[in-house]
Design goal:
Blueprint lengths: L4 H6 L4 H6 L4 H13 L5 E2 L5 H13 L4 E4 L6 H10 L2 E15 L4 E12 L1
Parallel strand pairs: 1-2
Antiparallel strand pairs: 2-4, 3-4
Length: about 120
């Protein structure tokens, strides 16, 4: 797991910090959840809005992050994948990730399928 210093700092700041540094909340949430789950890659387990994809892609590239996963099954996923591809991130098969919620039958974080995305 790659540590992102500005996100580490943001965890201890207020909303003004996010506005001042123009941090994307969708990406920050995925990063914070990654710390909880221990996944190697950032996983988007919630909706990724098309309007956020350019900013997310630029930030990931600037941080040297060349891969992430999407485990969310939201209804506009196809459009999201197409928009990520416009920014250089393509589907690279399926994988499994640890979800951000507990499987009530095992008492452990649930393992779920995810799309592996990588920068061309």
């Amino acid at each position: 797991m790659k540590e992102i210093k500005i996100f580490e700092q943001a965890m201890h700041e207020d909303n003004e910090f996010f506005r001042t540094h123009q941090l994307n909340l969708t990406l920050f949430t995925a990063y914070r959840q990654q710390k909880h789950t221990g996944n190697e890659l950032i996983d988007f387990s919630e909706v990724v809005w098309e309007d956020d994809i350019a900013a997310i892609s630029e930030f990931l590239k600037a941080e040297g992050i060349r891969a992430f996963t999407i485990s969310s099954t939201f209804s506009s996923l196809i459009q999201t994948l197409a928009e990520f591809e416009k920014h250089g991130f393509r589907m690279n098969g399926l994988t499994e990730v640890t979800a951000n919620y507990t499987d009530f039958t095992t008492g452990k974080l649930k393992v779920v399928p995810a799309i592996h995305m990588s920068l061309n």
